[in-house]
């Protein structure tokens, strides 16, 4: 009997005993292709020798030094690497231990920024429906996933939500992508006006929506229009790249495909590649300056921020991501994955949309392709797909439609960037078989 309170109780999880490359092996000797990188975490696969060596070397130097007493070379190096890779304008890094922590820190930075510059009346956060920004109270309040929020709603701080950019379901017939982006910008502006033009502190969005919608990217111009609206009202833009960042969509930061620079960016998951728990917030000079010239501190912190071994792992991961062969494989294998999914599932009457960027792909399931009607949530189609794919030796990341009934069940794929063509084909084959068996 397990003494762990697992996410789902009583389902009898296999015990993972080894990981190598894109495979995880369980105690019974079954092996699984890690087609989702866990939850878009294991970007370099498992047991990567160079990352393990970097961690070991750091353990031999120093494993922990509290950040109120010391900085470390390895944390400083990681921050420099990230700033060098980030679009110009993101000049400083705050290291944390995971995605929710990164989002909490970014929200508090936004709030403290406005206190520092003498606009303490700015307190509202606007985010989007069908989004996920983490499970801690502030991050959960920010996210717009109705199912995840439902039972906690009475204890969540107030957050306001507008529509996500979800062309498959929301762009109207005859509407151009530009007109759709404009409609969403108008909606955002109306929400700002409703709340008070000088009362909003931040707009939060995932550049490519991961867990809630399944690899849904924006239409062209959407983020440019969002940036303009935020600028018009002096609102900070926070982009959450916890899932879609660190090379997942084909560029190190997903926002690099949108031609804008936010004031704050959150990253995690792929940053540590699963070798260590680590996340970060990248922040603009404007925010750093307000703190430095104001109170002289960021009034926030956790015990393990800037952990040297986590920083060592992340620093090596980032170094490997910078190698041209890493990102070119993401592009090539991403295209192969999309083409394979189109060929294997495009004709299925139950597959409404196959989408994504790089090695971040989503398959949305529908009862009827014409009406795009989602499956009844009581069928728990996503759970059945997960079971069927695990039986076939494939880890994928299926999620149910949200209870606001807008999106359907979907499957997210996010394999490691080291994946090879024949392994992509195996993922497609196993996923198609699992979906066909489950529907
Ligand atoms: N933000 C996004 C976009 C995520 O996808 C997630 C996790 O899936 C989080 C934040 C929370 O990250 P963590 O689970 O590391 O706390």
From TrEMBL:
Keywords: Aminotransferase, Plasmid, Pyridoxal phosphate, Transferase. It comes from the Bacteria. One of its GO terms (cellular component) is cytosol. InterPro entries: Aminotrans_3 (IPR005814), PyrdxlP-dep_Trfase (IPR015424), PyrdxlP-dep_Trfase_major (IPR015421), PyrdxlP-dep_Trfase_small (IPR015422). Pfam families: Aminotran_3. Coiled coil: none annotated. CDD domains: OAT_like. The keyword Transferase applies. GO terms for molecular function: pyridoxal phosphate binding; transaminase activity. PANTHER family: AMINOTRANSFERASE (PTHR43094), AMINOTRANSFERASE CLASS-III (PTHR43094:SF1). NCBIfam families: PRK07483.1. Belongs to the class-III pyridoxal-phosphate-dependent aminotransferase family. This is Aspartate aminotransferase family protein. It comes from Rhizobium gallicum bv. gallicum R602sp.
